[in-house]
Amino acid sequence: MLRSSLAVPAFNNFASLRAYGGSSWRKLKGKTRIRLRDGRVFKAEVHWYEAHGVGKKRIKIKRFLS
Description:
Elements: E1 4-8, E2 26-35, E3 41-51, E4 55-64
Antiparallel strand pairs: 1-2, 2-3, 3-4
């Protein structure tokens, strides 16, 4: 349930992402609600990598907002 996303500059090594295919990887971030294993729900900022035709890969929770 991602509400918004922004493109942010990425200066990382994308060589390992190329194993998924695609050539133009972008690092994105957004805010969403997540449910933890114990059932609690929080708002969080998440970051991920995305390429056209491949989709989202390596989604990370960066910080909890509430």
